[in-house]
Specification:
The protein has helices spanning about 1-5, 10-25, 35-45, 45-50, 55-75, 80-90, 100-120, 130-140, 145-155, 160-170, 175-200. It has about 210 residues and is mainly alpha-helical. The chain has one domain (about 1-200): Glycolipid transfer protein (Glycolipid transfer protein, GLTP), CATH 1.10.3520. Helix 3 (about 35-45) runs antiparallel to helix 5 (about 55-75) and helix 7 packs antiparallel against helix 11. The protein binds ligand 1PZ. Keywords: Lipid transport, Transport. This is Glycolipid transfer protein.
Amino acid sequence: MAESINSNKTLHQIAVAFKNLANTVSDSQSAEVEVAPFSHACSLISPLFGSLGIAFKFAEKDYVAKVNDLAEASKSVPKLHSLIDQDVQANSVRNAGSHTRNLLRVKRGLDMVRVLFQQMIITEGNSLRDPASKAYEQALAPYHGWAIKKAVSAGMYLIPTKEQLLNKLNEDAESAKVQMQIYVSASEAVIQYIDKLFDSRNLGTDW
Ligand code: 1PZ
């Protein structure tokens, strides 16, 4: 009963989708992740942007476009690794808009949410500014130019409080913590898997 009441909540959906992906990844050394469930799981993150308000519209647009590109690619390329290998063969890995480049950007978005949730779990008080700033500093800022960093730091003054965010997500603090913790662990495994795909092909992940 509690499960069915809970099941359509954003955080619960995110937790379930990433737990399933993490299970695929840990099945064996030679695990192969399919693009479709991956891009679907990533698309579940998008509603979080809406809860952050207008300030991060530009981030949402960028993220959603890249996730949509992966979803589109899944129709012809079934596995994440084949998506990368195709770009390697075409020598288009770093090209603007390539699937591989979009995958790397989306992975950073997942990492941003991972650190954000991790910080929300351990940070006392009602402000999201420290958790959000730490997450941005760690996951995205090193790859952004000054104009984007300026826009983001301006946006940080407009983000809601933790209470407002949890209300919008229809969560109380305790249930939110449980779902966020599931995402933190599961996304870590998925992120490591993607990093390995890049590293094993000597593509680097710092561009
Ligand atoms: C309370 C939480 C506050 C969250 C603050 C989120 C700040 C994110 C700001 C990101 C701005 C991104 C603007 C566009 C950047 C693009 O230049 C790059 C490179 O794209 P390319 O040249 O390859 O086309 N895109 C990215 O770096 C991907 C950014 C993904 C952002 C996902 C963030 C997820 C945060 C969700 C928070 C709930």
